Amino acid sequence: MNQLQSMRVFVKVADLGSFVGAAGALDLSTAVVTRHVADLEARLGTRLLNRTTRRLSLTESGATYLERVRHILADLEGVEQMVVARNHEPVGTLRIVAPVVFGLHSLAPVVQSYAARYPDVVPDVTLADRHVDLVEEGFDVGILVARHMRSASIVTRRLTTGYMTVCATPAYLERHGTPTRPEDLLKHPCLSRPSEQGGEERVFIGPDGEVRVRPVNAIAANNAEMLRQFALLDMGVAILPSYLIGRDLASGRLVRLLDDYRLPPIEITIAYPSRLHLPAKVRTFIDHLVDHFQPGSGLTRDSRSAARVSAARPAAGLTSPGDLARPELSEESHEAGEPARRLPRVPRARVAASSQF
């Protein structure tokens, strides 16, 4: 029989001085109560209760055992209440893992607002672009960008969608012309990831359907933030995720190109260990993430702010009326009809730095 239950039964029998009374209080039969006590005595190899036809009394061993068992059961009850409270009230350390670039540019506001709302939770954020085993490494929540995870021990939930954006600085475009069709990228030095070096095919969806091109890389880096820095230094045309360059587009530091064309979207998902009873800190953080990135907030919210900023100031080019409907971080667009001139002399290079779109 269950030893803890036998201990609880024994305490109740000792308190009430009766097998029948204990049976009634515990909603058990008298025979079951008697067996619990007998099993304890057999396990301990000693008698705990003196039984007569008129009353029960504790033996010396029974009195000692009763005192210690009360403490054990009280401690156990305290632990159970603490665990229940942690599952119902957000408390403790919340371990979060996210890709480097997304974490640096999009995660901090979410964590800040969550920490302000739930001060008893301590967020512990890790940024990593390697494969992470959430269960093995003890993470509570992971954010995945353009990656899918299939595991019986992991639950995934769609968070939001990002977009790849073709962009360059106004200074670069003034000197070298503005591409208006995907084919024009072949005339410009491109800045992209190492796996794309040598001309990975890009598939654009435009007014006339699919357009496939293989831009020639001038510089490759495996860190999107580094590619952004190269673009800001007027070194070429970059294809970067919307969540990375929203503020640059809003301020005019970068100009979005090929406004009539779109690259495949970037799916951003939440992953967390599958549990029957999800801790409150995990449950509330997931809900907070979803609320932050829902339409009208998060990535889309930033885009609307960017659109308002761009509308309020002169822009180096024209703003497309369709911009406000595009769900990107920034909805500013510029066009220039200037023909392409000579290309800048940019040395081909490859920069190693860990990141992922």
TrEMBL record:
Alphabetical UniProt keywords: DNA-binding, Transcription, Transcription regulation
Biased composition (Basic and acidic residues): 325-341
Keyword rRNA-binding: no
GO biological process terms held by the UniProt record: DNA-templated transcription
Domain of life: Bacteria
Pfam families in UniProt: HTH_1, LysR_substrate
Annotated region (Disordered), positions in chain: 310-357
TM stretches of this protein: none
Domain HTH lysR-type: 1-59
GO molecular function, one term: DNA-binding transcription factor activity
KW DNA-binding (keyword) present: yes
Family: Belongs to the LysR transcriptional regulatory family.
Record-given protein name: Transcriptional regulator, LysR family
